Amino acid sequence: MKESKRNAFEAVQLARHPDRPYSLDLFNSVFTDFAELHGDRRYADDAALVAGFAKLNDIQVAVIGQQKGRDTKQRRHRNFGMPKPEGYRKALRIMKLAEKFSRPIITFIDTPGAYPGIDAEERGQAEAIAFNLREMANLNVPTIAVVIGEGGSGGALAIGIADRVLMMENSVYSVISPEGCAAILWKDASESERAANSLRLIGDDLLELGVIDEIIPEPNEWKLKTDENNDEPVKLDAVTKGLKEALVKNLDQLSNTSVEKRRQMRFEKFRQMGKWVSS
After folding, report:
1. Is the pLDDT of residue 241 over 90?
2. 147, 161, 194, 195, 213 from 198: Cα distances, Å
């Protein structure tokens, strides 16, 4: 198997770094007038997934993102960024509202995976994810997904079926975590670095494979100041400048494409993934 162009496990550690910008940070740095909506109208509100409406320059958009916490209290409240079925159903509710009012949809992916607990399974975790995949594939409005940190398995893909899939430079996107892969293949989680380099989960490899459409460069370093007593978003101009430019550019291109062509391109994009080509 082809090796990644750089150490993939280092990218995994960067993607999981607690000082990386989270969705709420970006919602209030990239966008203006963010108004959060809560609840799936069926069971409860899921704090691991935040959603609402905002403005990208003068364009009204729907924004959806997975949210982790920075300290123990926040992480428990946000369930470590692992949404339950009500989180994915909330996301879909916002998407349907956006489609009703012809507003583009932007999603931020940052999760180790969907929550695997028995309560989530009892409430239909797999069904909620599968339903989102189908519905997102058929949306009429422009959609952009951005992997901002850790994109893991179906929990990430449930808000990732988009016209354009972008990745921050130090993020990762994979069908399974390196630790999970190592435990399955070699019965040894300590082989996670070997697994990470084999999974081809960094942006360079995924761009080459056609899984993503663009890599957004990051500054060499950033400083993130937060109040340890809450997770109020902060301004991250140095980090988000390139992200905002990429969103505006891609949204402009998608908005100038007909609905029929956009849907067809989306279908073809995902149909090509995993296609077997013999040499």
Report:
1. no
2. 20, 24, 6, 5, 21
CA atoms within 13 A on the CB side of 72: 0
Which is nearest to 167 in space by CA: 112, 215, 213? 215
* CB atoms closer than 10 angstroms to residue 278: 3
Pairing of strands 59-66, 105-111: parallel
Query: pLDDT class for 182, splitting at 50, 70, 90?
Result: very high
pLDDT tens per residue, range 18-67: 888 899 999 988 999 999 999 999 999 999 999 999 999 999 999 999 99
Q: In whole angstroms, what is the distance from residue 110 CA to residue 245 CA?
A: 20
Decide: 149 and 110 in contact? Cβ < 8 Å.
yes
Q: What is the pTM of this model?
A: 0.90
Q: Which pLDDT score, from 0 to 100, does residue 234 have?
A: 44
Q: How many CB atoms lie within 10 A of CB 28?
A: 18
Check: CB of residue 173 under 8 Å from CB of residue 155: no
Among 233, 250, 203, 264, residue whose Cα is nearest residue 65: 233
Q: Which residue has the tokens 């926040």?
A: 74
Tell me what pLDDT residue 3 has.
44
User: Which of 258, 21, 31 has its CA nearest to residue 141?
Assistant: 258
Alpha-helical runs (H) found in the chain: 8-15, 23-30, 72-77, 85-100, 118-122, 125-137, 153-157, 178-185, 192-199, 203-209, 237-255, 259-271
